[in-house]
Amino acid sequence: MGEMTHSQWRPADPDATEEELAEAEREKEAANRRFGAAMTLLEARGYRAPKGQGNNPTGLFFRESTFEYVSRHPRVGVGRTPPTNVVLRLRNGPRREIATEAFHDSFCSRHTREEEADTRTALADKVKVKLGRDPENRGKALICMGDTNGYPMPAGEVIPPVDWDSEAITDHSHRWHRAAKQPDGSWASHTYLDEAMSECRMWDPARYAARKHGQINALDPTSGHGPNAVGQGGPQRIIRGYTDPWVVQAILEVNVIKMHGITDHHLLEYVMSYRKFCEALERSFEPMPSWMSVAHSSARWAPAA
Fold first, then answer.
1. pTM
2. pLDDT tens digits for 250-260?
3. SS3 call for 228
4. Which of 37, 51, 243, 304 is positioned for an S-S bond with 57, CB 3.0–4.6 A?
5. How many whole angstroms separate alpha carbon 174 and alpha carbon 197?
6. Separation of alpha carbons 148 and 191, rounded Å
7. CA gyration radius for the chain?
């Protein structure tokens, strides 16, 4: 899952001149060449969402030796940058469908991010059992990942919450984008997506890796490393993902891959057990309880072995 900044194009304006139309066509051809090159390099099939208002369109790749394509569900018109949604199945495994999404939420609007988050909970809704459907395919698995442009809830995190009232915060437009003013005049980070997905019983794999496997570096910051981040509160865990409460138990490790000198956003890698992933698709063990019940409990928990 990733951003297709140079592998997607913006349609020409309806009133474009012939020269502008020709330039748009050249941009389209170049973007398609880059996208084709990416698929060749990754040895994967790819899909892209339209560009939208933002300059960081989304895309999603999968290995056809492992997964087979089922369908797409484009979500055009929701949010600033349309996500890429693809439904897959394991080629040689349980037949439960897997809803996947690559997303890039609005950088400048809390309200838009809330709309994007609420729409994402529709994917969480597909995880639950739908009575009256084919019993072999009731409920989908879920894997989604992207640039949230928001913050995780502080429980269980190793990075302290941003002190938006500090004099070190000098980028005030960024504060407006990423925090909300409280009744007492203080500012608090916008955590709506994390709250929404957690309330829907979805899990952040990085939290699972830290809690289950003791891999604390899974909670390392994923953005805020570039020169343009000065005065914004320091590096934070903005690039995040969510899975359903069965699939998360297949997580073996979560790696934050440093991208210094290339981009100020680091990559996330989820390493899963194929056996456990198949068992998760079969739902052969109990789902994880909600993250907040785990985060605020001192009791030990032991997911299926």
1. 0.90
2. 999 999 999 88
3. helix
4. 51
5. 24
6. 10
7. 20
| Residue 52 pLDDT level (bands cut at 50, 70, 90) | confident
- Position 212: which residue type? K
Cα–Cα distance between 161 and 109 in angstroms, integer? 20
Distance CA 202, CA 183 (A): 30
State the burial class of residue 261 (Cβ atoms within 10 Å of its Cβ: 0-12, 13-18, 19+).
exposed
Contact 154, 161 (CB under 8 A): yes
Rounded Cα–Cα distance for residues 166 and 161 (Å): 12
CA distance 99 to 288: 19
Q: Which of 232, 212, 214, 213 is nearest to 223 (CA)?
A: 232
Residue 15 CB-half CA count within 13 A: 0
Residue 176's DSSP bridge partners are none
pLDDT tens readout for residues 215-271:
999 999 999 888 889 999 999 999 999 999 999 999 999 999 998 888 788 999 999
Is residue 146 a contact partner of residue 238, using CB atoms and an 8 Å limit? Answer: no
Q: Report whether 284 contacts 298 (CB < 8 A).
A: no
Q: Residue 15 — pLDDT band, cuts 50, 70, 90?
A: confident
Cβ pair 151, 194 in contact under 8 A: yes
pLDDT for 75: 73
Taking the C-alpha atoms of residue 166 and residue 81, their distance in angstroms, rounded to an integer, is: 31
- Reported in sequence order, the residue ranges of 130-185 that DSSP labels E, i.e. its strands, are 141-147, 179-181
